[in-house]
Specification:
This protein is α/β, with parallel strands linked by helices. Helix content is 46%, strand content 10%. The chain starts with a strand and ends in a 5-residue tail after the last helix.
Length: 261
């Protein structure tokens, strides 16, 4: 069994990409964000898997999460159970926790691959800003007094975007990594994905299984569609100050790693 980590900052299209891989080859199981799924399960929340069942009753995660030790996560058990329950030869995960990514890379040494997904930081910041506004308006945000400081949070998000992408650069190995840019999906998919699978001998897998058990991800991307629609609303919805601020704070990282959007 091989393991693919999708390395991408929040709101960068990781859920869509994971679903895309799952649908392009049925032997690839997209788990979603395993780290958040585990954390949410042990918090006592009755959150649902995309199959429609709460985690404890899901035919996949219901046979995995209840048997884990939250203080000592057994990756061997998780991977073996996923194979047993789905028959997949490849697990794709989009966890954001550096701790989990390190564990996955160490555990699947020699079988670990990665896809580093970047997205225009202005689009990311707008998406996170809109999400905060929706949660504040619904009364579901745990810290609304901070979340309402949208420009301050914009600066925080810009710096965090840099920090996480710098770490993703350190995690990936050039020989086993694919670099993708969300803003260029229209021209990069499916050719780059198919080439990546071919290089890593994953192009001959079966295509009969497509399993819908994403444990956590962007709900707006869970109803999979092949058509890639790139959102450019940031061009009109961010004001000049916000655009300039995001550009300023992310410039060093974009320049060092030659990111273009």
């Amino acid at each position: 069994m091989k393991f693919i980590s999708i390395l991408g900052y929040d709101r960068s299209g990781t859920t869509f990409l994971g679903s895309y891989l799952n649908h392009i080859n049925g032997d690839i199981f997209y788990a979603g964000e395993i780290d958040k799924g585990i954390r949410i399960f042990f918090s006592g929340s009755n959150k649902k898997c995309t199959c429609g069942n709460i985690y404890a009753e899901c035919p996949v995660w219901g046979k995995i999460f209840p048997f884990l030790d939250p203080d000592n996560i057994d990756l061997e058990f998780i991977s073996n159970k996923i194979f047993e329950l789905t028959g997949a030869s490849v697990i794709v995960d989009s966890s954001k926790s550096f701790k989990y990514i390190r564990k996955f890379k160490k555990h699947f040494k020699g079988r670990y691959l990665s896809i580093h997904l970047k997205r225009n930081p202005k689009a990311v910041i707008l998406s996170r800003m809109n999400l905060r506004k929706r949660r504040v308006n619904k009364g579901t945000h745990p810290k609304p007094y901070i979340a309402k400081k949208y420009n301050l949070m914009m600066i925080f998000d810009s710096l965090e975007w840099c920090y996480e992408n710098i770490w993703f650069e350190k995690f990936k190995d050039e020989d086993t990594n694919l670099d993708l840019t969300y803003d260029f999906f229209g021209s990069e998919l499916p050719s780059k994905i198919l080439k990546f699978l071919e290089i890593n001998n994953l192009d001959q897998l079966g295509n009969e299984k497509v399993v819908n058990h994403i444990v956590f991800g962007n709900k707006g991307r869970l109803n999979f569609r092949w058509k890639v629609e790139i959102n450019h609303t940031w061009k009109n919805d961010l004001n000049k100050f916000q655009k300039l601020s995001v550009d300023l704070f992310t410039y060093p990282t974009r320049r060092i790693y030659n990111y273009s959007f």
